[in-house]
C-alpha cells in the first residue's frame, strides 16, 4: 500500500502508469503530474474503471524546485518517479531531499540546451576529464550521493531498459553465470517498421546526437574514442534477423565501467537501417539538422526545429509500428575455471505493446522497467540509502518482476559473438 | 548595325550580353533591362571598357505589357531578346506585336504558379489533350503564329541549347546526313562537380519537377508516358565518362514531334548522379519539397522556399564547378539506301566558361545560342514572319556561328547507340 507521485505524462510515463495500475496492491495511490494537466487527466480518465489504484492528477513545472516541493508536501508520496525529460532530474532530486522521499528516473541528467556553445564547452570539458565522449554524464547526479545517504533516502538512476535492464543483466551475469567477466557487449536492436520513409521515435535532436556524436568504449580497461558511426557490425538477432549495428557511446557504459572494473572490453551497439542513416546524412548535408538560426524572409528559423514540424509526430507512430525490438547483453568470461559465453536479452513486439498500453515497444521497454524499479523500492527489495544505478542492486527480484510484467528474459549459452 | 533590347539580367542573360558584346559590328547598341536596374548597371559597368557595343540600361517589370511597350517605344530596338524567366514570354510577345519588333526567347512560356491547384488542372488538361506529360507546352506561344505572320515579324522560340541547339542538330542531320531519320535520342550530360554534397544549378522547384514529373517520348509515332525516372541508361560520354541518364519529358520533344513526323522514336535523356537523386528523394520523403505552406510557430512557411534559403546560392557555384557538359543528338536512319547512325554534340568546360564570362557551362550553353540566334535574325540569315522553333530554320549558319563563338560541334559517325 504505497502512494507514488509520477512526474511526466509522455509516452514512457503513459506505459509506466498503466503498468503501475496493474499492480494496485503495491501502487494503491498514484498522482500523475506534468506541465500540462489535461494530458494527466486524459490518462487518468482512460484508466478510471480499469484499476483499483486511486489516481489523482496535478499540474507542476518541474523546472521549479519550490513547485515540486509544494506538490510533494501536499500529496505526501513515498516515492517520486521522474519520467519527464532528463532536464529536470536535479530539481526533482532537490525537492525529494527537501521532503524526505525516495527518487527514481529513467535517464541521467543533462542540461536543457546542450547546443548552447557556452554549456557545450562545460560538458565537453567534463566528459574529456572523465575520458569518454558524451554531452551528458553521471557526475551531476553522483554529486548527490552523500546527501541521499545522510537523509536515508534512495535515488535510483536510469531505470529504463538501456540504461536500466541492461545493467541488471550485467549484475545477474556476475552473480550467477561468471566468476570473472572479461567482455560485455550491449546490443540494442529495433526491428520496428512504421511504414514512413523517414520518421524518428524521439525528437530528432536526440536521434541526431546518436548518429553524429563520437563513439566510445572500454578496451583493456581504458576509454577509447572513435569517430561517429565508424565501427559497424552485422548481427543476426533472434526473431528480428540480420541488422547493421554501430558502436555508440551510451550512458550506462559510464556506471558499468565504474562498477565492473575487471571487465576488459565494454561496448554498446545500436542498430540503424541504411535508409534512416541516408536520410540523416542528407539532412545534415543540406544544413537541416543545424541548431543555428537561419534568416528566412525576416524570421529567424532553427532548421532542426522546422524539420521537427515536418516529420510525423513521434506519438503517431505507435499504432503503425510493426516488428520487434531485441535488447540484451553478451558476456564472455570464466566460471569454475572454464571459459564461457552468455547472452541474456528480451524481445518485445511493437503491436502487442500497442494493444496492451497504446504505445509501441520503444516506450514500453522503458516504462515497464520504471514500474518494476519502483516496485523494488516500494517493496524494500532494493533498500539502501544513497544514489545508485541499477547494477548496484540485486538483479534477481527485478528480473523476476520484468518476467512477470511483460519483458521476460531469454538466454542463450552459445551465442554468436560480436567481432 | 543593330539595336537590341535584352530583358533579364540573370546568369544566362549575363552570358548572352557578354557574347553580344564580342560581336559589336552586329550588336552595335544594347539596352539591358530588368526588374532590378542595379544588376543591369553592374553588368554594363563590367563591360564598359571591353566592347565597342554601346550599352544602356533600364528598369522594367516584364509582367506589365504597357511598361514593356513604353520601354520598346523609347529605345526603338529591332529585336527583343527575352532572357528572363519563362513567365513573361506572353507579355513580351504582346509588346513586340504592339510595337512591330522581332522577338526571341530561350524557354517556352509557362504560367508562374504551376503549383496553384486551379492552374495545374488547366495545364494537365492541355497536356493530356496534347498527349504528353508536362506542365508547360508550346500551345500558348503557337497561338501567336497568325498575328506575327500578319505583322511581318519573327518570333524565335526556345533558342538556348536544349531547347535550341539540339533542334538545329536535328535540322542539320535531316539536311546533310539522312534521307530518312528513324530515331532521335537527345542526350544531356552535365559532368560538372561543385564540391558540395548537394546544391542545385537552378531553383530547386525546377530541379524537382525534372525528377518528379512523369517522362514521355515518341514511339512508333505516338506519345508514351512513363513513371518519373523509371527508364535509366548508362552512357559513356566523350570527355566526361560513364554516367547514368534518365528518360525525361523535355520541351523540344513537342516541336520536334510536330516538325519530324516521320521519326519513329524520339527521346530525351538527362544525366543525374546517384547522390543528387538520393538527396532529392530524402527531401521529398520528409516533405521538404512541398509547395504547400506549413504552420511553424505561428508562421506559414513553404518548405521548398525554406530549402532554397538553406542551399548554396546557385550563382555561387560558378567559380567552384569543375568538369564538362556534353549535350547532343544521336540519329539513326538511312542515306543513299544505306542504314547509318550519326552523333553530333558539343563539349563545354565549366572552368573555361567561368574564365571567359564568369558563368559556368550551364549558363554558357544557353547564353551563347541566344546570342547566335539573335545574330541569325539581325543578319537576316533567318528571315521569315511567324512563330518558329529552331529546327524550322536553316541550321548551317547557326551551327557555324556556334562553332565560332564557343560551342563548336563534334561529330561521331559510329556512335554507341542507346538501347
From TrEMBL, chains A, B:
InterPro entries: NAD(P)-bd_dom_sf, Sacchrp_dh-like_C, Sacchrp_dh_NADP-bd. Residues 160-407 form the Saccharopine dehydrogenase-like C-terminal domain. Pfam families: Sacchrp_dh_C, Sacchrp_dh_NADP. Coiled coil: none annotated. It comes from the Bacteria. Residues 4-156 form the Saccharopine dehydrogenase NADP binding domain. This is Saccharopine dehydrogenase family protein. It comes from Christensenella massiliensis.
Amino acid at each position: 500500500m504505497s502512494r507514488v507521485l509520477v512526474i511526466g505524462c509522455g509516452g514512457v510515463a503513459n506505459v509506466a502508469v498503466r503498468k503501475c495500475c496493474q499492480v494496485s496492491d503495491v501502487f494503491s495511490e498514484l498522482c500523475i503530474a506534468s506541465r500540462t494537466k489535461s494530458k494527466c487527466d486524459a490518462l487518468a480518465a482512460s484508466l478510471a474503471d480499469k484499476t483499483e489504484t486511486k489516481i489523482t492528477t496535478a499540474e507542476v513545472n518541474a523546472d521549479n524546485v519550490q513547485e515540486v516541493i509544494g506538490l510533494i508536501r501536499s500529496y505526501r508520496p513515498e516515492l517520486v518517479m521522474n519520467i519527464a525529460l532528463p532536464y529536470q532530474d536535479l530539481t526533482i532530486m532537490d525537492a525529494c531531499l527537501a521532503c524526505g522521499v525516495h527518487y527514481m528516473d529513467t535517464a541521467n541528467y543533462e542540461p536543457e540546451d546542450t547546443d548552447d556553445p557556452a554549456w557545450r564547452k562545460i560538458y565537453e570539458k567534463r566528459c574529456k576529464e572523465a575520458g569518454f565522449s558524451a554531452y551528458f554524464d553521471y557526475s551531476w547526479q553522483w554529486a548527490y550521493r552523500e546527501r541521499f545517504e545522510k537523509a536515508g533516502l534512495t535515488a535510483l538512476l536510469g531505470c529504463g531498459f538501456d540504461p536500466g535492464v541492461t545493467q541488471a543483466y550485467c549484475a545477474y551475469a556476475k552473480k550467477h553465470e561468471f566468476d570473472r567477466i572479461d567482455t560485455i557487449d550491449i546490443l540494442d536492436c529495433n526491428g520496428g517498421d512504421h511504414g514512413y520513409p523517414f520518421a524518428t521515435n524521439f525528437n530528432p535532436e536526440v536521434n541526431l546526437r546518436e548518429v553524429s556524436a563520437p563513439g566510445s568504449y572500454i578496451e583493456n580497461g581504458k576509454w577509447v574514442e572513435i569517430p561517429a558511426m565508424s565501427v559497424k557490425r552485422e548481427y543476426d538477432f533472434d526473431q528480428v534477423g540480420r541488422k547493421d549495428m554501430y558502436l555508440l557511446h551510451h550512458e550506462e557504459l559510464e556506471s558499468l565501467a565504474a562498477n565492473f572494473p575487471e571487465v576488459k572490453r565494454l561496448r554498446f551497439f545500436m542498430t540503424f537501417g541504411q535508409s534512416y542513416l541516408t536520410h540523416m546524412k542528407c539532412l545534415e548535408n543540406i544544413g537541416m539538422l543545424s541548431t543555428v538560426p537561419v534568416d528566412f524572409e525576416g524570421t529567424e528559423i532553427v532548421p532542426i526545429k522546422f524539420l521537427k514540424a515536418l516529420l510525423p509526430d513521434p506519438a503517431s507512430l505507435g499504432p503503425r509500428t510493426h516488428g520487434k525490438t531485441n535488447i540484451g547483453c553478451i558476456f564472455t568470461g570464466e566460471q569454475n575455471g572454464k571459459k564461457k559465453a552468455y547472452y541474456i536479452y528480451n524481445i518485445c513486439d511493437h503491436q502487442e505493446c500497442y494493444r496492451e498500453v497504446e504505445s509501441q515497444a520503444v516506450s514500453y521497454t522503458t516504462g515497464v522497467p520504471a514500474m518494476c524499479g519502483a516496485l523494488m523500492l516500494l517493496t524494500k527489495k532494493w533498500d539502501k540509502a544513497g544514489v545508485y544505478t541499477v547494477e548496484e542492486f540485486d538483479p534477481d527480484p527485478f528480473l523476476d518482476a520484468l518476467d512477470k510484467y511483460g519483458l521476460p528474459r531469454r538466454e542463450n549459452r552459445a551465442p554468436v559473438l560480436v567481432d
